[in-house]
Write a structure and sequence with these properties.
The protein is globular and about 45 Å long. The protein has a 9-stranded mixed β-sheet, with helices on both faces. The protein has one domain: 3-Layer(aba) Sandwich (Rossmann fold), CATH 3.40.50. It is built from 11 helices and 9 strands. The chain is α/β, with parallel strands linked by helices. Helices cover 36% and strands 18% of the residues.
Length: 297
């Protein structure tokens, strides 16, 4: 894999936004927060999501890690795939590997929340030497094995699979009228557990709104690409090939991705442990972030 030298675009009190150029000419944007000599942890966000999200900035600072986050194709400042072609989970994982290579990382802790969990597992499968440890948080299993996609959407996905090349544009049209970011937190939360967490931590709600606003910078390109990656295209990796120790964390009260998904992943991953958090919802990633960093650092 070609190593690109990152270009720093902006810096702030919370970190720096940089870009690199992928072999196909795309810009890949990523943020780095924390001390330069801290252990690297790469975090891949939900769908929709962007590089702006840190699940718990206070816990990240206390852990002393160097947190790396990136925009998947079509989100934030990262270009979509060329010629409108779909992005696969493997494509997103390869972008993450390029970022780690550009930073000179020999290994990293890998954490993925919801859709981001597939990306870090694909990274651990395709570049095992980079995976110090893996955390998969509230990530859905394939709908064919653990049904979770609404029936009306399942029919649309079946149609899109007949012509994958047209799927990103078709999905972008479906999502063209998404609500403003401040009303879109339901994409990544839901249920009483999340409502209680958001009420207790107003900063978290604001951070989610910022993440979503940035994810929609290019309209629906990012979420259309993401949905294609895990519903229309083959994932491009075999979970059974992930040798890194993997922690599966799910909220018992997650109304979108319940603990039954953890059971599926545990059956696939050779070195996985399962933790189900009582009362937690889809935002369990923020509830347990400090503990997860202790494992990953």
């Amino acid at each position: 894999m070609t190593t690109a030298v990152p270009t720093v675009m902006t810096t702030s009190a919370t970190g720096a936004t940089s870009t690199l150029t992928a072999p196909d000419g795309r810009t890949v944007a990523f943020d780095v927060r924390g001390p330069a000599d801290g252990p690297i942890v790469l975090f891949s966000a939900a769908a929709p999501g962007s590089r702006l999200f840190d699940p718990d900035p206070r816990a990240t600072a206390q852990a002393g890690v160097r947190l790396v986050t990136l925009d998947r194709p079509g989100y934030g400042l990262s270009d979509p795939m060329p010629d409108g072609r779909p992005c696969s989970v493997a494509d997103a994982a390869d972008d993450a590997a390029r970022v780690l290579d550009a930073l000179g990382a020999s290994e990293a802790g890998l954490a993925g929340w919801s859709a981001g969990g597939r990306v870090v597992l694909a990274l651990a499968a395709r570049r095992p030497e980079l995976a110090r440890a893996v955390a998969v948080i509230a990530t859905p299993a394939p709908d064919e094995d653990v049904p979770w996609i609404p029936e009306e959407q399942r029919a649309m996905i079946s149609d899109l699979r007949r012509d994958p090349a047209s799927a990103p544009a078709a999905l972008a049209r479906v999502f063209a009228s998404l609500p403003p970011a401040e009303y879109a937190t339901g994409f990544v939360s839901g249920g009483p557990g999340d409502e209680a967490l958001l009420a207790a931590r107003p900063r978290l709600r604001a951070d989610l709104v910022d993440m979503l606003a940035e994810s929609f910078r290019q309209g629906a390109a990012g979420i259309a690409s993401d949905i294609c990656s895990y519903t229309v295209l083959p994932w491009g990796f075999d979970p059974r090939s992930v040798g890194a120790r993997t922690r599966l964390v799910y909220g018992q009260a997650d109304q979108t991705v319940g603990p039954e998904h953890a059971t599926w992943w545990a059956d696939q991953l050779p070195a996985a442990t399962v933790e189900v958090v009582p009362g937690a919802g889809h935002l369990v990633v923020s509830q347990l972030w400090g503990d997860l960093l202790n494992q990953l650092r």
